[in-house]
Design a protein that fits this description.
mainly alpha
Length: about 140
């Protein structure tokens, strides 16, 4: 190794050390990176999507066996799924229309929670969906206008 390679290597090590130190200082200072301003909302919406898909699948299976009383539940879950999917995307982007969508999604989550609660004592999927909708509604309230 010649002198120039040694100097370059030392410089690269110093640069790597400075970068690591700056990253650590940024994390300690609480600096929020783009896309994480609304992490709790994005996470709650994502959970709603997951539990809602399971609830909808459960409702469709039972409706296929003639249990028509789950039709309103399936309809409210379907509407919630569309809105929560979009909400998760906009929350991750810290998008311009997030507050407006959070307001509409709040209503959909409250409707879905109410409908799922009607079946929560008989169907675990409905119970989990109602719980996740309540949590998402809580996060929506913090952002909605």
């Amino acid at each position: 190794m010649d002198r120039r390679e040694a100097v370059m290597g030392t410089g690269l090590l110093a640069l790597a050390g400075l970068t690591a130190a700056q990253m650590a200082a940024t994390e300690e200072s609480g600096h929020v990176h783009h896309g994480s301003h609304h992490k709790a909302l994005a996470d709650a919406a994502g959970t709603c999507v997951g539990t809602g898909q399971a609830c909808l699948d459960h409702c469709l299976d039972l409706m296929g066996n003639g249990q028509k009383e789950l039709a309103a539940c399936a309809k409210s879950v379907t509407q919630m799924l569309s809105l929560c999917s979009a909400l998760q995307n906009l929350a991750n982007q810290d998008a311009k229309y997030l507050t407006k969508l959070a307001s509409v999604t709040l209503d959909a989550c409250l409707d879905c929670e109410e409908e799922c609660k009607k079946h929560a004592d008989k169907h675990e999927a409905c119970k989990r969906c109602a719980e996740s909708c309540a949590a998402c509604a809580k996060e929506c309230k913090l952002v909605a206008t």
